Amino acid sequence: MFSAQSKEGRLICLADGYRADELKRMRERHTFYCPACHHKLDLKIGAKKLHHFAHKPGSACPVPHEPESLYHLKGKRLLYEWLGGQGLRPELEPYLRTIRQRPDLLVNSGTLKMAVEFQCANLNLKEYQKRTAGFLKLGIEPLWIVGGNRLKRSAGCFFQLSGFHWQFSMRNEKLPKLLFFCPDQKAFLVLEHLIPFLTNKTSASARYLPLQQTKWHDLTSSKSRSSYQLDAWKRNLLKFRTTPSRFLSKESKQIAALFYERFQIPLPFFPSEVFLPVPSGYIFAHPVYVWQGHLYLYLTTRSSFHMQSAVLYMDKLVQSKKLKLRRNQRETVVNAVCEYIQFLHEKGFLKKEEEVYYPAGPIFLKPRLAELLKRDERYFSE
Ligand SMILES: [Zn+2]
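Above are the sequence and the zinc ion SMILES. Below is the predicted complex in structure-token form.
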């Protein structure tokens, strides 16, 4: 960390630009204390690492203080300077006594009350929720920025997102969104329109924002889906159909067995209708063809159905734990089912009279790749 207190209670902030020789003299004359736990701190004057304070090994502090990486220190400092450059007068590592938390940065400017956490280390869901609730209790909106070193790109518009990422993506926003910052590249990366294809392979529209050219509100604004994303989705589906899957989850095997029993087709020949990129589909912690596969079987075994009964059917699968959710949000499940059925209606697969939906024609599924690809083209082009 960059901040410490002197014996007299004066706050010393290393991000304010001290020289190494100044700090060496200060270290000889003064003792530094943690503003949270008041234990003595070591002042590390680094040639490689940025100058920083550190707790002595094994000290008990109410604020978690995993050893800070250079990456974290650099990022925190750049963000501090960046916010300051926009006249937002950020505070670096202020200790908020009532909630015993110390955010990386705090912006308190007019109506804007925001804690910025630059998260580079692991953080479990419980700790994330505790910290978020702490800020909200004080009327402070938390903004979680994930370290760019925590992001892996698979290919094109696809990213490997785990539970660690998803936990940061779903506050207050109608649709999930993730914010990354890389101090080495001095740039943000905003991921929006997150649509999982496989459990750990998610399609997204990515925006690369160099720090120098980015304003605070650019981070919180939203952009529409890039056309490139749908194109990448189609190419990814082609790859899925033509290369064997190495690993299948229990739920994937179950849906594969159900389709084989009903239509005698294997997974790579599943119909285009179970790969629809719908905005709320992220709520299901499964490959897209698992949850849509269940819905597809439901609506093709009935001569007609109401939207409401399709929702209830999915509710039952969730309650019986056949389907797992990323977050317990029934509202989003309802949205996902409605978006799915509306998509099929728009593409002419379903017809609708009054409030009743029914398949537009008889369902034949044949394991012919050329036909499937033609159909994919029709479904996944703008
Ligand atoms: Zn401490």
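The first helix runs from residue 20 to 29.
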